[in-house]
Amino acid sequence: MTEEKKYKNLDWTMARTVILAIIIGLIAALAAKALLLAIQYFSIYLHPIPLDQLSKQDDATLSLIDIISLSGMGLVVGLLTYYLMPNRANRGLSHVIEDIHFNHGQTGVKEGFAVGLISAASIGAGASVGRYGPAVHMGAAAGSGLGSLFKLQEQEKLTLACAGIAAAIAASFSAPLAAVIFVQEVVLRQWRLYQFIPTAAAAVAGSELAQLLGVNFNIPSGAVPDIVNSYEFLFFGIVGIACGALSIAFNHALPKGVALGAKIKIDNRLKPALGGLVLAMLGFYYPSILGLGGYMTTEAIAGNIALQLCLILLVLKFFATIVSFSFGFNGGVFGPALFMGAMLGAAIGITVELTGIPISSISLYAIAGMGAMVAGIVGAVMASIIALIEMTGKLSPSLPLLFSVTCAYVVIYLYSQSSLLVRQLNGRGKNPFVEIKARDKKYEGVDNA
Questions:
Q1: Domain spans of the chain?
Q2: Residue 435 pLDDT
Q3: How far apart are CA 118 and CA 215, in angstroms?
Q4: Could you report the average pLDDT of every consecutive run of 10 residues in the chain (449 residues)?
Q5: Which residue, among 50, 57, 193, 42, has the nearest Cα to 124 in the 3D structure?
């Protein structure tokens, strides 16, 4: 009887967790929509022309009001961070992973939605950060908050936090399968059926509601060809190698930039205001590097961009993202990684085309670059491949993506490098994967990986 009761309780626990996970999926999609609306609100009311619209204009430059808004909202971001965030410092995806492993998945609800507010203000003002990381933070906070509300056991709360992460990713990218893989591959680093099922339920619920709300970022399938020339895999390999090298450079430069920013002898509440002025200088002639940069990413995928512009935007985005985080703006790195990958991939595709070699489409090179950069920076190898396939709705990018990501990781492994998330965890002495590696004799690879 005791054993039978035990299994009945287990069945009820799973059913309860799945039901709550679906609710969390819906909450995460609503939170992602609210974040997007907040970004649009700040962008519309802070700039004479919203930055995404300004990017569409030829020879557009920042106005004096744009510069004042960047610096002024920097001050607001500094004050919000100082008074709302734990330890008066920004928190990101690596902190969510830390909460999952060291705090039983407990991410504070106040913290999660403070991250959303600060990130919306940062992006709306023009900081070069992404919206997907904050959406994940809010999803994790919703999951752990609902678990605490119902006074669930620690393992259930952890599972619901993972469900919130998956739902936020699925809602942002319309990629529920990639979202589930991301949680297992990047966040947990181990596969458990009792965690997989609720996470999958949340991802599906979040993705479906997000499509109705118009939240997710999709790649128009018309730009993606159905056939790839066999000889082009040489060039997709070059895309992967270049993205692997750029990922290593970015993963080293960002923590060093943040450390350098911490040494600046001014009040932390004022640093984002100073950072806003630096960003204005970087983006004065190229405002498309500021904010989300979705328009130019789409243009690169469509092949409607010149080689010189690709390279300029790539370099400026690299430094603008580092400046944004170093001076205290908050947001994610998914968006900048997608932007840089699209520019680098498109640049290589355009270069090949200029030599007179026929290629299938610039779009495939941009998409391959996006997948390779996300894999190299975030460490989401499988998830990045699956996400880009789901976002395009076609299987034709699968082999170019697979080969480019593989080549990127050959470079990363050769130099024994770690993803940005692992470098951040190591920097705080909170890398949970060291313990997982010690327990699992079959665990292989470098410490990022």
A1: 2-213, 223-439
A2: 60
A3: 19
A4: 47 83 96 94 93 88 95 96 89 91 88 94 95 94 92 88 95 92 90 86 95 81 79 96 97 95 92 96 95 90 92 97 96 95 97 93 94 94 93 87 95 89 89 65 45
A5: 42
Superfamily of domain 2-213: Clc chloride channel (1.10.3080.10)
Q: Which two tokens stand for residue 347?
A: 């640049």
Rounded Cα–Cα distance for residues 135 and 169 (Å): 8
The phi and psi torsions of 178 (rounded to 5 degrees) equal -65, -35
Q: Convert 358-367 to b/e letters by CB count within 10 Å (16 or more is b).
A: ebbbbbbbbb
- Asked if 62 and 242 count as a contact pair (C-beta separation under 8 A), the reply is no
DSSP string, 119-166: HHHHHHHT-S-BSHHHHHHHHHHHHHHHHHHTT--HHHHHHHHHHHHH
For 356-383, the three-class secondary structure string (H helix, E strand, C coil) is CCCCCCHHHHHHHHHHHHHHHHHCCHHH
Other C-beta atoms lying within 10 Å of the C-beta of residue 332: 23
Q: What are residue 83's phi and psi, to 5 degrees? A: -100, -15
Q: Do domains 2-213 and 223-439 have the same CATH topology?
A: yes
pTM for the model stands at 0.92
- Class (C level, CATH) for 223-439: mainly alpha
The string over 374-405, giving b where at least 16 C-beta atoms fall within 10 Å of a residue's C-beta and e elsewhere, is bbbbbbbbbbbbbbbbbbbebebbbbbbbbbb
pLDDT for residue 445: 43
Q: Are 319 and 266 in contact (CB under 8 A)?
A: no
Using DSSP's 3-state secondary structure scheme, residue 1 falls into coil
